[in-house]
Amino acid sequence: MPTHKDLAEARNKGTATSSGAFTAETLIAGRYGLGCRLGSGNFGTAYVVQDHKTGEKKVLKRINIGEVQPNETVEAVKEATLLAQLDHPAIVKYHDSFMDVEHFCIITEYCEGGDLDYMLKKLKSTNKILDESLIMDWFIQLTNAVHYIHDRKVLHRDLKTRNIFLKDKKIKLGDFGISRILVATSDFATTFTGTPYYMSPEVLKHEGYNSKSDIWSLGAVLYELCTCEHAYQGQNIMAIMYKIVEGHPPRLPNHFTPSMRYLHSRMMDKSPARRPSAIEILQDPCVKRHLESHKLSLSLVPKESNPSEEAKAIAQALSNQVPSKGHKDQNKDISGVNRSPLELPVNKKLKSRDKVPPWVKEHPDVFVGGNISMTAFDTCEMKEEVDKLDESLSLMEVAPGQSSEIRQKDMNSMTESYQPKRYSQQLDTLKSSSSSDEVKYTSTKVPGTDREKVQQSHDGFSLFTPIASERRMLQLQNDALRIFGPDVFQSVYRYLKVARADGGVADEAKVLMGLRSITQNIKDCFLVDQLVFLEKQRENSL
Ligand SMILES: Nc1ncnc2c1ncn2[C@@H]1O[C@H](COP(=O)(O)OP(=O)(O)OP(=O)(O)O)[C@@H](O)[C@H]1O
């Protein structure tokens, strides 16, 4: 099957790829002729299809969901229908969705220019960068799209250059809502999918996703447009996560105008409250100046339809859907923004391997989600990274004495022993405090003290609580205990606690060597690594 690159090359040469021809035998849903494979992502495979009704080229995303319950199918299609209501020139149009045996299929607009990630990598390889004026054009189109969805109380949640496409030299924000449909059912999993490069500090700390988290990601995309580099670099995913949460946000290089650099610095402010909203960005002097100088003011900012009516319709449709058991407030994002009640159990394969550990069975009230699932983040990207590190490590020549010296030193300095933590008390408090959608303030008990911490929604749009973080820690703890057993888990935990004590900047090769001395199952050590990371964030916040 030809890839996107083959397609692009064929396009440039004005030829068709051999398997790019549409054939009658592969007519899908009685309407779409299967064409070239564009590529595969975390959840499925994308193809170019030809719509036999309209003659247009479109994209088919085929997601293997295994066996689903009929009601889940209905919910998925309902959700997709709602997303189809979004209509904006800078958003990839969502046309259709249907079930095809074990696949959930989504039909979207085709963007022949490919994605920005691919384009920027190509630019980088030829040592080129984009012109500031073009960057501003694209950035404004993107912000416009983000403003459009936020206006309708919908979050993107997965803004990244791989989800931004080019069509007729215009920007299209794509995979819109795909992440809403594709992530596993557990609500906390939704904050931890995909690549970490664009994730805001609050998302990585599981403090909640809100509209300002999309703005952070938009800032990371702007950085990439300006430099052809990710905003954060690191040896592996954990290193990147620590940098995002504990380091200083990156700044645009000096050759960009001060006003643009300043705007970008506000978008990547670690405090969500201080980040501008999408409309504030569009009103920023730097944006206005660009629009004026290019006489683009009206053409770039589309005429609004009736956002509040549309938002109401979307909210209404979502609230008609039955939330999953145990998720009273599941339909509402903590920011009050619509989120899918569906967050469909698409990742059946991943979920099925996760058996509920006895500890959870004994405490069903604690485990609100009722199921345990690894997210795409855990299973795909992180493991890919570990594989890469594993490969590079196996090629490294290490003097035998060296690793044992590290092990001995690190092990000797370990004093903390792992006590299985029970998060139930905090969760009970939090559950009751989060039951109302109108809550603007919430108080939580600080573990181990009789103090109460009051948290406040910073702009009336979002409410940060540590619920998701607590749940995530519980999930990680149980998963790791189940996989490693108590003894190995304890050793891995103690080792990583020391290794990450300095902010996660330890030499990853050394860390891996140390872990190898404890277990051969390096991949799953990252469950413990995440647990240590979240515990550290919690300690820092107390
Ligand atoms: N609407 C579209 N128009 C043109 N190409 C597309 C479109 N949607 C996806 N593609 C291409 O199809 C390929 C697979 O995309 P897909 O969205 O399935 O995964 P991804 O974006 O690479 O990863 P992820 O799972 O993280 O979203 C990518 O090369 C992408 O550029």
UniProtKB/TrEMBL annotation:
UniProt-listed Enzyme Commission number(s): 2.7.11.1
Catalytic activity, reaction form: L-seryl-[protein] + ATP = O-phospho-L-seryl-[protein] + ADP + H(+); L-threonyl-[protein] + ATP = O-phospho-L-threonyl-[protein] + ADP + H(+)
UniProt keyword annotations, A-Z: ATP-binding, Kinase, Nucleotide-binding, Serine/threonine-protein kinase, Transferase
Classification via SUPFAM superfamilies: Protein kinase-like (PK-like) (SSF56112)
Family: Belongs to the protein kinase superfamily. NEK Ser/Thr protein kinase family. NIMA subfamily.
Superkingdom, taxonomy of origin: Eukaryota
Naturally occurring in which organism (per UniProt): Amphimedon queenslandica
Record Gene3D superfamilies: Transferase(Phosphotransferase) domain 1
Region (Disordered): 318-340, 400-452
Keyword Transmembrane recorded: no
Occurrences of domain Protein kinase (ranges): 32-287
Biased amino acid composition, Polar residues: 401-446
Name of the gene: 100638507
Primary enzyme class: transferase
Protein name per Swiss-Prot or TrEMBL: non-specific serine/threonine protein kinase
Native organism taxonomy: Eukaryota, Metazoa, Porifera, Demospongiae, Heteroscleromorpha
Record GO terms (molecular function): ATP binding; protein serine/threonine kinase activity
Signal sequence, renumbered to the chain: none
